Amino acid sequence: MATRLQHLKKFAALLVAVFAISLSVNAQTWYIMGEYIWSPPHPQGTFTVFHYQAEDVTIDDMEYHTVYVQGEGTLLGAYRNEENQVYFCKWNGSSYDDEVMLYDYDLEVGDYFNDDDEHPMQVTEVSTITDIHGVSRKKISFEFIGLEDETEFWIEGVGSSKGFVNSGNYTPTEDGAIFHLLCYHIDDDVVFVNPEYNDCDLPYSVEENDADNGISIYPNPANDIVNILNANGLNITNIEIIDLTGRIILNTEDYDNINVTEVPEGQYFVKIYGNSTIVRKLFIKK
Fold it and tell me: What's the whole-model pTM score?
């Protein structure tokens, strides 16, 4: 009996470990369009970036989730949830700044946010939206006091229409850029698409994920090798590794195991071509 109990305890511990790992690899990603709004000779046009959640850190004995920006993997800061509020510590290049409230989803019509700011936000409407998977989420709409036509909205569990870490950002950054959330993913699963934009405006349409034809990839995250599981025997003709700006990092005809050793750390798409089908999977290179 004692031996059996020990085995059950070990099995329970294994389940807890597996569950913890499964939570830790969930990759939350905010796809964002930036636009340069300054006049010439400053740069003009638009660009697409993404912010993504990475490792957890402990700050002042509290657990936070780090947030990075694409490319060089610049650390933006770290956030934590407490009931219906979200708190954020900005990374200043050497340490984390003091915590500030990034979101308060308990706000109601007429309430103010950032009321000590030059142009505080006032809630104009509180409503409910239904995300792509039929989940009801609270939507809070704001206007900026003293700024004509400057608005913002929050989607509970997703973030601001200006991008997750840009809540309350009504002015351009130092390089003259301002941001707009296109869509929000968990792993390679689209959760929310900003209705002001079409199919996330990503390099490749989200519709490519609709019929995956039994394709899956593992491990994810990956260090050296990404394996392709082709459960339905799709006739694969080509595979590409693509960054989230649409740049092809790797092109291969090795349909079982893709060597990603030389791929820099970050998030990428594995784009799999098969006959008239295109399957797109998001993966993380560690």
Answer: 0.64
